[in-house]
Amino acid sequence: MAGSTRHGIVVGVDGSETGAAAVAWAAREAVRRDVPLSIVHVLPSRATPAWPEFPFSNVFAARDEDRARMILQAAERVAELSVENLGPITLSCTTLTGHATATLVGLSEDATMVVVGRSGDSALHRRFLGSVASGLVHRARCAVAVVPGDDLGARAHEFPILLGVDGPPAGEFPIAIAFDEASLRGVDLVALHVWALTEVHRFDAAERQRLIGVGEAALAARLAHWQSCYPDVRVDRRLLFGEPAHLLVEASGSAQLTVMGSHGSGGFAEKLLGSVSSEVVRAARTPVIVMRAK
């Protein structure tokens, strides 16, 4: 996978169960890729002191710092337990101060991947982490993995990688990531492209068959270079008509990881702010890796 590895894989934690699932997934990914894992907890900054000065402000600050240490210690234990049968891991734990999204975006400049949980353990956490995940997939400078609350690491290891194939504007990075993940895990790759043709019912059988032939040829050509680079990866190419987000989420039920780009043309012709990627990240039954077009 292209990108700097000074920070290796960065995972943001907040003490929630989803954060723990993200740590476990990120730790296994770090061992597979032989890169370090950086576990990061972000404390909100207190740029504006209370006035009049609150007499217990230092007590609360110390409490937050103690909680941050406990969160990182617990995350470190999760990481070590998750990879005890996979191999050694190099990891570090850091507490930073600032805005969570901006801090993680900054770290993404020198990271292979940034990993976060999809939701927290309360309504407030769900809103907060949802905004962090959303901000990251919009602004991060590297791949972003959003991990559901349950740890899917034990999910059937033979399940394939699911790739949402976009048009050329999305870039090659999502395809490269998906092939790399399939090769590292020793599984097949399902490459799915969806034509969101709302009036497909108007086509007769012959015209629909012609469109399918054109689409299949274009999909094969789109993947040809990467198939030659990864001859060990068996590819199942699929071309469907329908609603892209729904079909990707549905297909994720038989995968162990979903990979997609941020925007492009064709069935996935939504910018990351749009409904397709947002819905897939929110509802997929697997961790989702999103790579912004560059």
TrEMBL record:
Question: Which Gene3D superfamilies does its entry note?
Answer: HUPs (3.40.50.620)
InterPro entries attached to this UniProt entry: Rossmann-like_a/b/a_fold, Universal_stress_UspA, UspA
> Per the database record, which ranges form the UspA domain?
9-148, 161-292
Question: PANTHER family in the record, alphabetically?
Answer: STRESS RESPONSE PROTEIN NHAX, UNIVERSAL STRESS PROTEIN UP12
**Family, as annotated:** Belongs to the universal stress protein A family.
Output this protein's name.
Universal stress protein
